[in-house]
Design goal:
The protein is of the alpha+beta class. Helix content is 19%, strand content 28%. It has helices at residues 30-43, 55-63, 134-139, 143-150, 210-224, and strands spanning 7-10, 17-20, 45-48, 76-77, 82-90, 114-121, 129-133, 153-157, 178-182, 184-186, 193-195, 202-205, 230-233, 240-244, 248-252, 261-268. The strands form 4 sheets. An 8-stranded mixed β-sheet has the order 1-2-3-14-6-16-5-4, covered by helices on one side. It has a 3-stranded antiparallel β-sheet with strand order 13-7-15. The chain has a 3-stranded antiparallel β-sheet with strand order 9-8-12. The protein binds fe (ii) ion.
Length: 274
């Protein structure tokens, strides 16, 4: 498959595009990889359909973009030799996780660069995922608000995760559960600015009174989920979503609570936000 056979179809104005003509299980030709990287930078989250990925192929594809992250708490396939593959499973017995807007693991000093999520078992209806563009949300603010936010830093805390009791927790990694990041970060590849606080992990804005911090964060959380900044993806078995964690947020729609849904995620390590 050459780069000429690849099509890229945007899903919404702010972000998201479906890419056809790439088999993620195969090694990528250099021009195909360039097309994919450019599409990822432009669209922030890209989608593929009908992919058949083994655990080896899923991790090998992700490794082209960086080192792989091991989550401190969420269950993984480590017993099969894949601690980098996080398993997100829900059913009539297991509740959905990630129902609130967030970007992944922002409570660490170097949050992940991106994630590659493979839909293994998905309901016929429901269980969609939404993404929001933090570039678009930032660009939708007035100059005055952009200037105010650009000087602020926020505390992120993931200790709520520790309440999820499971045998998979990594005691060493569990020490890295709080971090301070700029409220507006600059993307190291595109140079664009985006909002970098989220209602799941951000605790407060540093150096502000509690009332001030709460008012600004509540406003931002409401603002960044405005429909015009989002896209919504319906999963089919074999669908893959690959998102840039530095400029997007996401959440699941928990609307088919009894259906079995199993997703496998490989996450790529990132840099310290600036
Ligand atoms: Fe997530």
């Amino acid at each position: 498959m050459s780069a000429n056979d690849i099509t890229i179809e945007p899903l919404a104005a702010a972000l998201g595009a479906e890419i056809r003509g790439i088999d993620l299980a195969e090694p990528l030709a250099p021009d195909t990889e360039r097309t994919l990287r450019d599409a990822w930078a432009d669209h922030q989250v890209i989608f593929f359909r009908d992919q058949k990925l083994t655990a080896e192929q899923h991790t090998a594809f992700a490794r082209r973009f960086g080192e792989l992250h091991v989550h401190p708490v969420i269950p993984s396939r480590k017993d099969e030799g894949f601690p980098e593959i996080v398993v997100l499973e829900s059913s009539d017995k297991l509740p959905f996780v990630a129902e609130r807007w967030h970007s992944d693991v922002t409570f660490q000093a170097k949050p992940p660069l991106g994630s590659i999520l493979h839909g293994v078992i998905v309901p016929k209806a429901g269980g969609d995922t939404m993404w929001a563009s933090m570039y678009a949300a930032y660009e939708g603010l007035s100059d005055s608000m952009q200037r105010l936010l650009s000087e602020l830093h926020a505390v992120h805390d993931g200790s709520g995760f520790l309440a999820i009791g499971n045998d998979d927790q990594n005691d060493e990694l569990k020490k890295d559960m709080t971090a301070v990041h700029p409220v507006v970060r600059t993307h190291p590849v595109t140079g664009r600015k985006g909002i970098f606080v989220n209602e799941t992990f951000t605790q407060k804005i540093k150096g502000m009174r509690a009332k001030e911090s709460t008012a600004i964060l509540s406003f931002l959380y409401e603002h960044l989920k405005s429909p015009e900044y989002t896209c919504r993806f319906h999963w089919r078995p074999g669908s893959v979503a690959m998102w840039d964690n530095r400029c997007t947020q996401h959440r699941v729609i928990a609307d088919n609570l009894d259906a079995h849904r199993r997703m496998e995620r490989v996450t790529i390590c990132g840099d310290q936000p600036y």
